[in-house]
Each structure stands twice: as structure tokens, then as C-alpha cells.
């Protein structure tokens, strides 16, 4: 009984002092990067900001989904960074090649993710990877309209996107 | 030495890119095309600032580049949103 | 500019030229491609990576000349990689809303159906 109340106390204290630990960490990192030097004064300033800003603003933001598994997330980041490099070479080739060979098309990608932040990450990934830019999200957040610069096989493209980017995100966040 | 030539060349290439953006900016045909052209111009301007920073070996330009990056994004989203809804804050 | 050893100069030079070429290709796509949605591809991808490469070059340069690791260029890179897809998305969203049609005529259909 007492231990149960104590844990809830701890949780509520943690929620009041540090409602969004990840956000605080990012704020601190950005602050230190912007300062460009690692001194005691800048670190103290950064820690104060990282504690005060989330505490003031967390009521206004939606909840960022909980990262359930870290390993798939790291794998995902590596895959996406590699794909960004490939994407740029592909798009460069397409732009430099003859324009009339391009077959632009709109694809409708069904979205299984539910959290708005997770969908945002998915859409941003699509925009940064080969030949596709996310263009619109339907009102019920179930379909993402994606513009592809050129596509010979739209259905395969959709399946690839879902398997390569959405599946790992589902694993990380849900 | 190599670096001097490389930076000079890069200045030339990025300037040419900015000219292409200017072409799209004047050509249109839609307002949104012009917004995209301005946004790209912003990014190319950041590139020029970075090159200038290496050329004169100073990091004074870094803050300017960061400011342009942030203001450029806010400006683009503001314009796009204005064109989307006809008003910025509902 | 300070004199650096040749191999460092070559690395930085290669990164800068690579970045400049990609920035140029992005802008070329913006100028050359026939409809609005296709034009968006250039700036969101090629230009962002081009600037990323130049920023890495600048990072290497300042880390070497100052003798300490300089990381604050990462801030610009990260910022651009986060914002580029967002602005592309909102731009094409408002293009669909204001009924700018693409060359295949698909936007019209899709806007009726879904959005």
C-alpha cells in the first residue's frame, strides 16, 4: 500500500519536474551545439533551460509516442541515412536525364500508424527518400498521398515503402 | 591551394544555381512556384555564407546562416499556410 | 585561409564541390521540370544533401584550423533535414488545395475523392 502510493508520488514528481525527458535532452544538446563550446556556465544555462521550458510547455503539446525499442530505431536511422544518399543520386540522375522519360504519378499509401508524430516521421522519411514526396494526408489520417517523380510499378513502390519504413516504425512505437 | 580553387569554383556553381532560382522566381507560373523558388534561394544563400566563412576562415557567418535557415523555414511555411487558408492564425 | 596539408585540403575541396554540384542540380530541377509537383523534388532532396555535404566540409575545415572539434554546423544540417520535408508537404498540400494541376491530370481526381 505505502509502496504503491510512493511510486505514484515518484511518477507525479517526475512528471512535474521532467515531463518530457527526451525533449529536455534534445534542448540541452541543441543549446550546447549552438554555443559551440563546452564550459560550466553554458552547461548550467542549458540544464536550466532544459528543465524550465518543457515544464512550461508540455501542457500545450501532444504526447510524443513512447520509444518501445531502441535497436530497431537505430537500424531505422541508419537505413534512412543510407537511403537519403541513394535518393539524391537517383533524383540527380532523373533531373539530368531527359524530362519526357519521366512518368510522374500520385500514389495512395495506406497508413497503419496512428500517432500523429509517428505519421510525421513516416511522411518526412518518404519525402527524403528516392523519388517520392509526401503531398497530403487525408482527414482521417489513414491515407497518405505521395507524389513520385517516376514510377514503373506503383503497387510495388507502395509495398516497398510500407515494408521498409512503416514496419520498423510500427515496431518502434507500437 | 586546391582549397582556394575549390571554393572559388563552388562560389560559381552556387551562384549559377541562384540564377536558376531567380529564373523560376520571375517565370512563375503560380505563386507557389515562386515560394518554392524563394525557399531554394534561401538554402543556396546559406551555402554561399558557408563558403564565405571558409574563404575568410571565420565562423562569424555561422550565426547568419543559422538565422537564414530558421527564418527561411518560418517564411515558407507562413506563405504556404497563408495560401492554403487565406489567413495565418485561425 | 590557412595552409593545410594536401590530403585535408583535397577532402574538404571534394566535399565542397560535391555539395555545390548537388545544390546546382536541385536548382536545375526546379527550373527545368514541367509541373509544380515534380519541381518540388529538386529542392527537397538534392539541395538539402548538397548543403549537408558543404556543412561537413566546413566542419572538417574549422575542426582542423581551430584544433578543436567544431560541431555547430550539425545544427544547421539537422534543422534543414527536419524542415525540408515539412515545407515540401505543406507546399504541395496548398498546391492541391488551390488546384494546381499536374501534367497527368491526377490531382483533380484525387482531390475529389479524398481530400
UniProtKB/TrEMBL annotation, chain B:
Keyword Cell membrane: yes
GO molecular function, one term: sodium:proton antiporter activity
Membrane topology note: Multi-pass membrane protein
An example Gene Ontology CC term for this record: plasma membrane
Cleavable signal peptide: none
InterPro entries the record matches: MrpF/PhaF-like
Family membership: Belongs to the CPA3 antiporters (TC 2.A.63) subunit F family.
Annotated protein name in UniProt: K+/H+ antiporter subunit F
UniProtKB/TrEMBL annotation, chain C:
Pfam families listed in its UniProt record: PhaG_MnhG_YufB
Domain of life: Bacteria
Keyword annotations from UniProtKB, A to Z: Membrane, Transmembrane, Transmembrane helix
Keyword flag Membrane: yes
GO molecular function, one term: sodium:proton antiporter activity
InterPro entries for this protein: PhaG_MnhG_YufB
The UniProt record lists the keyword Membrane: yes
Spans through the membrane: 6-25, 46-64, 70-91
Name the record gives this protein: Na+/H+ antiporter subunit G
Amino acid at each position: 500500500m505505502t509502496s504503491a502510493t510512493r511510486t505514484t508520488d515518484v511518477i507525479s514528481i517526475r512528471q512535474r519536474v521532467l515531463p518530457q525527458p527526451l525533449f529536455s535532452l534534445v534542448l540541452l544538446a541543441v543549446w550546447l551545439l549552438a554555443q559551440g563550446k563546452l564550459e560550466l556556465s553554458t552547461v548550467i544555462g542549458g540544464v536550466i533551460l532544459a528543465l524550465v521550458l518543457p515544464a512550461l510547455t508540455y501542457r500545450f503539446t501532444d504526447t510524443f509516442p513512447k520509444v518501445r525499442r531502441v535497436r530497431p530505431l537505430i537500424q531505422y536511422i541508419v537505413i534512412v541515412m543510407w537511403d537519403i544518399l541513394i535518393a539524391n543520386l537517383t533524383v540527380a540522375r532523373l533531373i539530368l536525364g531527359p524530362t519526357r522519360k519521366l512518368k510522374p504519378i500520385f500514389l495512395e499509401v495506406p497508413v497503419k500508424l496512428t500517432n500523429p508524430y509517428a505519421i510525421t516521421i513516416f511522411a518526412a522519411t518518404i519525402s527524403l527518400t528516392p523519388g517520392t514526396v509526401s503531398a497530403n494526408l487525408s482527414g482521417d489520417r489513414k491515407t497518405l498521398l505521395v507524389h513520385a517523380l517516376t514510377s514503373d510499378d506503383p503497387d510495388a513502390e507502395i509495398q516497398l515503402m510500407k515494408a521498409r519504413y512503416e514496419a520498423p516504425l510500427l515496431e518502434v512505437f507500437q | 591551394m586546391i582549397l582556394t580553387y575549390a571554393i572559388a569554383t563552388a562560389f560559381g556553381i552556387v551562384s549559377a544555381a541562384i540564377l536558376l532560382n531567380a529564373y523560376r522566381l520571375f517565370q512563375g507560373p503560380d505563386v507557389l512556384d515562386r515560394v518554392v523558388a524563394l525557399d531554394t534561394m534561401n538554402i543556396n544563400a546559406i551555402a554561399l555564407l558557408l563558403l564565405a566563412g571558409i574563404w575568410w576562415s571565420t565562423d562569424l557567418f555561422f550565426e547568419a546562416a543559422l538565422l537564414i535557415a530558421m527564418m527561411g523555414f518560418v517564411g515558407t511555411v507562413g506563405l504556404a499556410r497563408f495560401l492554403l487558408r487565406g489567413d495565418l492564425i485561425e | 585561409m590557412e595552409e593545410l596539408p594536401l590530403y585535408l585540403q583535397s577532402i574538404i575541396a571534394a566535399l565542397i564541390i560535391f555539395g555545390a554540384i548537388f545544390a546546382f542540380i536541385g536548382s536545375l530541377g526546379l527550373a527545368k521540370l514541367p509541373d509544380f509537383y515534380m519541381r518540388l523534388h529538386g529542392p527537397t532532396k538534392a539541395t538539402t544533401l548538397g548543403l549537408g555535404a558543404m556543412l561537413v566540409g566546413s566542419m572538417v575545415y574549422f575542426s582542423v584550423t581551430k584544433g578543436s572539434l567544431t560541431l555547430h554546423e550539425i545544427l544547421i544540417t539537422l534543422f534543414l533535414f527536419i524542415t525540408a520535408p515539412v515545407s515540401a508537404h505543406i507546399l504541395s498540400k496548398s498546391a492541391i488545395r488551390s488546384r494546381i494541376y499536374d501534367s497527368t491530370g491526377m490531382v483533380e481526381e484525387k482531390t475529389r475523392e479524398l481530400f
